[in-house]
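TODO from last week: model DUF485 domain-containing protein.
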Amino acid sequence: MQASPQFGKLRKTYRSFTFPMSVAFFIWYIAYVLTATYFPEQMGQPFLGLNVGLWLGLAQFLTTFLITYIYVVYANKNIEPQAAEIREEMEG
């Protein structure tokens, strides 16, 4: 089954979302860490009752939840139907 075109298409569908999204989030995370390391004065600036660093830290959590939600929607629409088709074929 791994050599089948259906499985290759499923793998491509999965990877076309997860790899770019993982790279984008990793860059965002590294940017946050590097900014906190090399620009602590700017991160400590007050902004809307908190400092910039705390707002960016909260944004890390929010983007994690957002990415999870987007992935669930994407998987339900694109990945799960293909996986179900392969599962049905394998189980007979």
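Done. The chain has one domain: 5-91.
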